[in-house]
């Protein structure tokens, strides 16, 4: 029996480890895979032969892993060269696979790692050690093509929708004599799925959030200020969610523009404080703002049960595809119906996945451009459904800790010729 | 039988409505109080005779109220004059009490409303309509004297401790190639209880948060940067929690100083982005930051069961004190033991409450000034214990909505001579 390697890539999510648990359990159940190794810090862990043996993980440990946010095995941002340009990293990966008898590679990440997964699979064929590589989808940005949603998104969406609901009623309760406006900044540099999900908190017409600012809709300061004023005068207060990547009419992010307007690097805030400043200066309303940052993607305490189930299922499905020899695929979620939400999993060729990103379509956004449409609501609602709380101890969620033991190395150290290319992006 | 008036004051919390439910249920159970009215938007609602009749609230509604964050009846910030200076607002309150046959007044708030509660009680005696006024404690800042803790604090504490734990492992998982530092800004302008509570997330020595910046400890930039660098070199990353009110050696908040350094009002961020900027400029580490703002005080989805129980209990106890004719009191929580946490409720004279604020004592802070001491941990740990989730529907917590009906007014409108004194503070 051959072994498998599981690696995590890119920005973490609240449920990526549920996919890890799905992969590990499915491998064990198959009877066709011996050991599942985890790469410590993603593909860099594979290159450096930093492997973790998951065999000692008992069922309780796998349950804990499943309920743990962030990339428990460690992830990285690292871009592999094209094979034709420089084969050395691919050769090293093949050497590590061969040294540890690894025939299956599961790469859990977003669009970039789908590309890398495909490149590694193809290189392994050219270099004479064909491995079966399957990509396991993950991204809180929900911008992967050809899947109903991306595991990780639903939980972040549930967190931001809950947060803006709670903050909106907080704002409402003090609006008579205190702040009139609250702004929550969500992640989303290009695609506005998370800011859109905030709109699910609006159940009745006057509920917050009253305005959603999508990166797909160019920001119109005049319209925005008018809407804020109209909402405060009508409802008494105005709750707003804004995507970090909000852009002006010329396509520049407001954040970047703000930085330029202020004295160089003195402008330290995100887009939320910038809008708060605008509201206070132009309308005279006292304004509060929050930037959730990592909190939204790590909020396993408020995970969507649907999201956890899907993350686990794509992990299991990846193993089934691999054992069928169906490499170069990504298990994708296919929606069968909205209400009740029914879905299954299909294999999508990675060549399709890596063709492009997926933005919020105009028909999911209301006519004004400032809230969800009914179609958008229908799409998003099932993705945040259900609760899946982690174990709490002493009042705090208990999370998995990676053991310190590493698999003994069999190869000499690898001096990556490409170390300088390790990307330290956001 | 006489009626009672319940009013909410100041910044909301996740559990102030649990106190409301405790007051309403205890009044009903007593058989000695007829109707419990709620004041819409606090003492201003009382002045303007905007009253809500809680009699139609059935048990399910009261359960929903108990599990709803923010001030469900609406709160305000409004400072009453001294009676000697201007008796008109007091006279109006007495008129409203008399018109609606109100003999009991329950005022749910922090230090300011304890003062107001006492003033109203004393004025009612001087003006010949003696009411029984009891203050019900509430503040997420935990800065009330003579009570083990303030209802509302435990839930905010549980939220920030959970958030920094989740964000810390997110940071850890990407630290190999991405951000090395994460900073969470908590509320706390003068007292560092919430930033201290973040320290509960540190279970093992290398766990985040690694540094806590208390407003009680003057900020030392050199020591801070040294500690960040040392932590990143030792652990691989550094997670930090900072109180919004962090002060420099001269007692100025860093936030205010930052505003002065930058071009006037161009500095829009809080203290977290300011420190992030410092870390990036001085140490070259990529840094992420979050400002939780209202999210932390409204996070009923992550309430502390201990906090909910205490909030409910002080509401009930306030009614018991009122019925005993023990006015001018606040039901306070008395700690009987740390482990297991046992507490009861005692009546504390309001004159004692309003004497001062309560800061984190030096012995609750580690020798370095940058983390909790064991004593601090022992004090804080029980306050976040236990979970008390609200009802979820369609993936989101369901919260109480105030009915639109108001009690018919019996008095002419009140033109407050003091309207200009309504305070629009944070």
UniProtKB/TrEMBL annotation, chains A, B:
Pathway this chain belongs to: Carbohydrate degradation; glycolysis; D-glyceraldehyde 3-phosphate and glycerone phosphate from D-glucose: step 3/4
Protein location: Cytoplasm
Alphabetized HAMAP family for the sequence: Phosphofructokinase_II_B2
Binding of diphosphate, residues: 11
Residue intervals of the Phosphofructokinase domain: 7-321
Domain of life: Bacteria
Entry-linked PANTHER family: ATP-DEPENDENT 6-PHOSPHOFRUCTOKINASE 1
GO cellular component, one term: cytoplasm
Catalytic residues identified in the record: 141
Family in the record: Belongs to the phosphofructokinase type A (PFKA) family. PPi-dependent PFK group II subfamily. Clade 'B2' sub-subfamily.
EC numbers, comma separated: 2.7.1.90
Gene from which the chain derives: pfp
InterPro entries per UniProt: ATP_PFK, PFKA, Phosphofructokinase_dom, PKF_sf, PPi-PFK
Catalytic activity: beta-D-fructose 6-phosphate + diphosphate = beta-D-fructose 1,6-bisphosphate + phosphate + H(+)
Gene Ontology MF terms in the entry: 6-phosphofructokinase activity; diphosphate-fructose-6-phosphate 1-phosphotransferase activity; metal ion binding
Keyword Metal-binding: yes
Gene Ontology biological process terms from the UniProt entry: fructose 6-phosphate metabolic process
Function: Catalyzes the phosphorylation of D-fructose 6-phosphate, the first committing step of glycolysis. Uses inorganic phosphate (PPi) as phosphoryl donor instead of ATP like common ATP-dependent phosphofructokinases (ATP-PFKs), which renders the reaction reversible, and can thus function both in glycolysis and gluconeogenesis. Consistently, PPi-PFK can replace the enzymes of both the forward (ATP-PFK) and reverse (fructose-bisphosphatase (FBPase)) reactions.
Regulation of protein activity: Non-allosteric.
Chief site of localization: cytoplasm
Species for this entry: Chitinivorax tropicus
Cofactor(s) annotated in UniProt: Mg(2+)
Swiss-Prot/TrEMBL site (Important for catalytic activity) positions: 138
Subunit structure: Homodimer.
Protein name: Pyrophosphate--fructose 6-phosphate 1-phosphotransferase
């Amino acid at each position: 029996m051959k072994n498998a390697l599981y690696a995590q890539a890119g920005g973490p999510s609240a449920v990526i480890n549920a996919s890890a648990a799905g992969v590990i359990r499915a491998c064990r159940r198959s009877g066709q895979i011996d050991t599942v190794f985890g790469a410590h810090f993603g593909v860099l862990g594979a290159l450096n032969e930093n492997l973790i043996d998951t065999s000692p993980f008992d069922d309780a440990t796998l349950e804990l892993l499943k309920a743990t946010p962030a990339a428990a095995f460690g992830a990285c941002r690292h871009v592999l060269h094209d094979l034709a340009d420089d084969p050395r990293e691919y050769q090293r990966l093949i050497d590590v696979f061969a040294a540890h008898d690894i025939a299956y590679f599961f790469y859990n990440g977003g669009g970039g790692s789908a590309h890398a997964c495909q490149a590694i699979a193809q290189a392994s064929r050219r270099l004479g050690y064909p491995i079966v590589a399957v990509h396991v989808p993950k991204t809180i940005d929900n911008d992967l093509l050809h899947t109903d949603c991306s595991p990780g998104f639903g939980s972040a969406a549930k967190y931001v929708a809950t947060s803006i609901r709670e903050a909106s009623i907080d704002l409402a309760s003090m609006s008579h004599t205190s702040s009139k406006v609250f702004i929550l900044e969500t992640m989303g540099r290009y695609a506005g799925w998370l800011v859109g999900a905030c709109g699910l908190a609006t159940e009745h017409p006057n509920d917050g959030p009253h305005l959603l600012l999508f990166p797909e809709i160019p920001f119109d300061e005049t319209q925005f200020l008018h809407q804020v004023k109209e909402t405060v005068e009508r409802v008494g207060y105005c709750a707003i969610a804004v995507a970090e990547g909000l852009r002006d009419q010329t396509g520049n992010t407001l954040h970047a523009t703000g930085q330029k307007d202020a004295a160089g690097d003195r402008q330290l805030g995100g887009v939320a404080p910038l809008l708060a400043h605008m509201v206070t200066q132009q309308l005279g309303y006292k304004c509060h703002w929050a930037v959730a940052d990592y909190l939204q993607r790590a909020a396993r305490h408020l995970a969507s049960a649907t999201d956890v189930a899907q993350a686990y299922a794509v992990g299991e499905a990846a193993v089934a595809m691999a054992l069928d020899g169906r490499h170069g695929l990504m298990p994708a979620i296919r929606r069968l119906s909205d209400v009740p939400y029914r879905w299954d999993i299909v294999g999508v060729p990675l060549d399709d996945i890596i063709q492009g990103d997926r933005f919020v379509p105009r028909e999911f956004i209301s006519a004004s451009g400032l809230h969800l449409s009914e179609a958008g609501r229908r799409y998003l609602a099932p993705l945040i459904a259900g609760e899946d709380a982690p174990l709490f101890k002493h009042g705090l969620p208990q999370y998995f800790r990676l053991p310190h033991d590493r698999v003994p190395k069999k190869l000499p150290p690898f001096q990556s010729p490409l170390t300088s290319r390790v990307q330290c992006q956001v």
